[in-house]
Design goal:
single chain; mainly beta; Metal Binding Protein, Guanine Nucleotide Exchange Factor, Chain A; five-stranded antiparallel β-sheet; four-stranded mixed β-sheet; 12% helix; globular; CENP-V-like
């Protein structure tokens, strides 16, 4: 399958997502919570895909937990961009990538679906992420 690459503005956080499905079949979800809206973020994932994350300087990556505190948005402290979100569920790392930080990828606006998960309990959110987020995630830090 075709890989998608992206990252933060300064390059400290880089990601490479290789979905198991064709790109045209992947969801594009715009979370309407205040945090994601302020970042202009919209996400994709494929539970059968693979995500590789490379971090240049780990001390320049902030993890901002809010709400149910069940996810770890990765925010670059150098440039302020949030390229992905990770979640630790039952000893495993899951992730979604922020398509607004993808390189050379244009998503037609009509493909982006607004989603609101405010009605879900923390347990429901964790179960949904385990079903729908990228389940093969590797994170490498170089400093």
């Amino acid at each position: 399958m075709t890989a998608i690459e992206g990252g933060c503005h300064c390059g400290n956080i880089r990601w490479r997502f290789t979905p198991a499905r064709p790109l045209a079949e992947l969801p594009a979800r715009r979370c309407t919570c205040a945090f994601c809206a302020k970042h202009g973020a919209f996400y994709t994932s494929d539970p059968g895909g693979r995500l590789s994350v490379e971090i240049g300087k780990a001390d320049e990556v902030g993890v901002y937990r809010f709400g149910t505190r069940t996810t770890e948005p990765q925010v670059c402290r150098r440039c302020g961009v949030m390229p992905l979100i990770l979640a630790h569920i039952e000893g495993r790392v899951y992730g979604v990538v922020n398509l607004a930080t993808a390189e050379d990828l244009a998503i037609p606006p009509e493909r982006i679906q607004n989603v609101n998960f405010e009605h879900q309990t923390a347990e429901e959110r964790i179960a949904r992420r385990a079903r729908t987020w990228i389940a093969q995630v590797s994170v490498t830090s170089h400093g």
